[in-house]
Design brief:
The chain is 9% helix and 32% strand. The chain contains five helices and 38 strands. The chain starts with 5 loop residues before the first strand and ends in a 5-residue tail after the last helix. The N terminus is likely disordered.
């Protein structure tokens, strides 16, 4: 935030002027009145001011006192002990000179104003919130001191409320570790809490950079939500959702005690760009998106909103990590859900998820539709977790169109069938544009799945049929599997030691299958009509028939003419020569 030119007022700066002491009035005329200051007019000659006073600046120049916003050599905590006959001024710090509260600007105000403080003469001053970005240190937020957890929690919540009352703004957190003892509850439209960097989930063991928030109590750390009807003081039918704002460019470390790190309820056009680590609470999730019930649908049932409560149109980029020994591994990374009856998470594009976890699900879609993920990167660290789960919908929920541009995962990808979830009535559609098979990403399992590109990868499994492998959910016949494969680009999947199992392979738009027998290292090509058109070869090393090494090379005669002039005898002689060569050299029989 740019401020007007500043100058430090010291006793020697004003002439004539007594030294500024505790309880003494600060002499000098009043600076220019800021635009948002509704206080009385400046004092003039004969009214206690000093007419024509000038200040000596650091470079030796002088300026009329009325042309600058003076910085006083006192902190906010010292204002109450001095009489300050100014309309606006800047303090040297919050609790001590040079701390995060330095450069805070105060203007004359009221006892109800933001961070209001009364000087020794009984005049009320309040923070000047006219700029678009307000430092959190102006409210008393302190980094690097765990003993300030209560002060920090109160200060950040108070700052968000004040920015909300003026229709939004950005609260800039300082760099470093900021401890809090309570939930940071952002329920105000267009209020954004921004840190100074969130680090990377790939930096194992590296010291944190930027801004890190740590709880000292088992609380949900970040809350972004619409206000309830009671909080707004309106009937539920007139309540509305929070718009814009959010949390950006910071890390939240649950320290192994926080049950949830981010909880979002019924907001629209929000921004969440965060690194979340080390939550604890089996069976829940590090980040949850849910909704309030819609008044129009659930009248009399704890309703809150007079409109659909969906989380919509947000920008979401989440890195999540569960380090061994910190928090709990059995934990979902993020759940995009909602409350039954007209409230879900939908209509978001470009969602970015990086998740490192053990048990639990990386990305769970429990009541969501029309979501587009830019990428999902799932990094399992053991356990039985899944990378992506699209749950079947129960009555009132939705499981709609989900698109993932790129997914790279080390654990399962699944779309639930109706039978997989008690009471479910429908399933969703999952469309994966690029599946990173080259890094071991498994084929998705379940109904209504389309995969455009699998990176020509090989997927290894055992104990399943070719058709079951191809679709992942037990297709009745290889013909059905081939029909499925015809809609997908090149990929392959190996299944060992099964009479009807093998390598599913797609060339352009025509599916072919290779049956593999690992006992003999032989395979067989089967075409679209399931008739053999190739020959069995040894996979490992040798290329001869039945595993025998070739014993020589074929020497072919000159090429036949291609204009149709070659007779039948010449064609037959050429083909027989090739056949004899292949048999002689162990390449055919």
């Amino acid at each position: 935030m740019r401020l007007p030119p500043l100058v430090m007022i010291a006793a020697s700066s004003l002439a004539p002027a007594p030294a500024l002491a505790q309880g003494a009035a600060l002499p000098g005329p009043v600076p220019n009145r800021p635009a948002n200051d509704a206080g009385p007019a400046p004092a003039g000659p004969g009214e206690g001011g000093v007419s024509g006073a000038r200040l000596t600046l650091a470079d030796g120049a002088t300026a009329a006192l009325g042309s600058v916003v003076p910085t006083l050599d006192m902190t906010r905590g010292e204002i109450g002990g001095r009489a300050v006959p100014l309309r606006s001024f800047v303090v040297s710090g919050f609790a001590s000179a040079g701390d995060e509260g330095a450069a805070a600007r105060y203007v004359r105000g009221t006892a109800a104003g933001p961070m209001a403080v009364q000087d020794a003469a009984g005049t009320w001053f309040q923070l000047d919130l006219s700029g678009p970005v307000i430092p959190a240190g102006w409210w008393g937020v302190v980094a690097g001191d765990e003993s300030k957890a209560a002060q920090n929690g109160i200060a950040i919540n108070r700052a968000m409320a004040a920015l909300g009352a003026r229709s939004g703004g950005t609260l800039q957190l300082p760099a470093g570790d900021i401890w809090v003892d309570r939930t940071l509850d952002n329920r105000f439209s267009y209020v954004l809490v921004r840190g100074q960097g969130m680090g990377s989930s790939h930096d194992t063991g590296a010291p944190p950079v930027g801004t890190r928030i740590l709880p000292t109590a088992p609380v949900t750390v970040l809350r972004h939500r619409s206000q309830t009807a009671a909080e707004r003081g309106v009937p539920p039918a007139q309540n509305f959702k929070t718009v814009g704002g959010g949390f950006d460019n910071l890390m939240v470390d649950g320290a192994g005690i926080a049950p949830r790190l981010l909880h979002v309820t019924s907001v629209t056009h929000a921004l969440h760009r965060l690194y979340l680590a080390n939550a604890v609470s089996p069976g829940t999730e590090a980040a949850l998106y849910d909704t309030y019930p819609d008044y129009r649908v659930r009248k009399g049932q704890a309703q809150q909103l007079g409109e659909a409560g969906d989380n919509q149109y947000g920008l979401v980029s989440l890195q999540m990590r569960q380090d061994p020994g910190r928090g709990t591994g059995s934990l979902d990374c993020v759940n995009f859900g909602g409350t039954s009856f007209n409230g879900n998470t939908s209509l978001m594009t470009g969602i970015e998820i990086i998740c490192r976890h053990a048990d639990g699900v990386g990305v769970r879609l429990s009541n969501a539709d029309n979501l587009e993920f830019a990428f999902i990167r799932d990094q399992p660290v053991g356990g039985s977790g899944a990378a992506l789960l699209v749950q079947a919908a129960v009555p009132g929920d939705s499981a709609g169109q989900i698109t993932v541009r790129t997914i790279s995962a080390g654990s399962a990808i699944k779309v639930e069938a109706v039978a997989d979830r008690p009471g479910a009535v429908s399933v969703g559609d999952l469309h994966i544009i690029d599946l990173d098979g080259g890094n071991g990403t498994p084929m998705p399992v379940g109904p209504n799945i389309k995969v455009d590109n699998t990176g020509n990868a090989t997927f290894v499994s055992t104990g399943s049929s070719l058709s079951g492998l191809a679709l992942g959910n037990g297709v009745a016949s290889a013909a059905t599997a081939r029909a499925y494969l015809a809609n997908h680009p090149v990929f392959s999947a190996v299944v060992a030691n099964q009479s009807n199992a093998g390598l599913a392979y797609l060339s352009n738009t025509t599916p072919y299958m290779q049956r593999v027998d690992t006992a003999t290292n032989r395979f067989q090509f089967l075409g679209p009509d399931t008739h053999e058109f190739g020959t069995a070869l040894r996979v490992a090393g040798a290329v001869g028939f039945n595993g025998a090494a070739p014993v020589g090379r074929c020497k072919l005669s000159g090429a036949l003419p291609t204009d149709g002039s070659a007779g039948n005898a010449a064609l037959a002689a050429a083909l027989n020569a090739v056949r004899a060569c292949l048999v002689t050299n162990g390449l055919a029989q």
